[in-house]
Task: structure prediction
Amino acid sequence: MNDIDLSNINITIVGLGLIGGSFAKSIRENINLKNLWAIDVDENVLSTAEKLKIIDKGFINPKFPLQNSDIIILCIYPNLTIKFIKDNINDFKQNAIITDTSGIKHKIVQEVNSFIRDDLDFIGGHPMAGKEVNGFSNSNDNIFYNAQYILTPSKRSNLTNINILKVLLSELKFEAVTELTPESHDHIIAYTSHLPHIIACALVNNVANNTCSCIGGSFKDATRVANINASLWSELLIENKDAVLEEVDKFIGDINNIYKLIESNEQEYLRLYLEKSCEKRKMMKV
Result:
């Protein structure tokens, strides 16, 4: 992969929100490209990005950048990702690499590959990074530093194109890039990302108003991600419904077991359960 040169390519980012803006800023900071373009519905965001010299040019109409871009990075909602590719399928440059950043993969990869042109290569992607706020103004060029990235290539994905994306992601300071099937991604993320967000929201919604003055660090840590983009996350959870419900069901079972141990004063069994979780947490490389 050392012979892959990114200096003579054009990249377009679709959606200059938190993730798209961070991609643009990180690319500008770390990679010398031929052109970095962006597509967005918000003229003010595009104008700001141009004035700050984060992108070379912004576009409302996607036709020109799509016709001339070697890599397109979609940083928009899952269903909008599918729609955007389908609506503009005839405008993509021949042999272009298309990737996304959505938190679900199976539906997107399956649907896009059902209509994509033979010369195009869609390779799903998911940066394991973010903030509890959204929008271009909250993006920054170091959000991906030492973060994990997941690629979900399909059987039709080209190995050279996968390696091009890996080089790009390495230049953006991601610590590691993992390849998973779209199905494996969705099941793993249901546990490591979707379930924690659900738990955080449930904890916050269970708070009585008169307890706010008694909140300490553990509650703050456990509920940090409850400051959520509700529109995006409701879509993610519904679209990954089967895997999410499976993890929620297992979690409810675990909570019920803890409830029974406390209810029956089984202190020794409770201690063993807590010790088990403590040891498992120490072994996690996070």
Residues 200 and 223 are 4 Å apart (CA to CA). The chain has a mean pLDDT of 93. The chain has two domains: 10-180, 185-283.
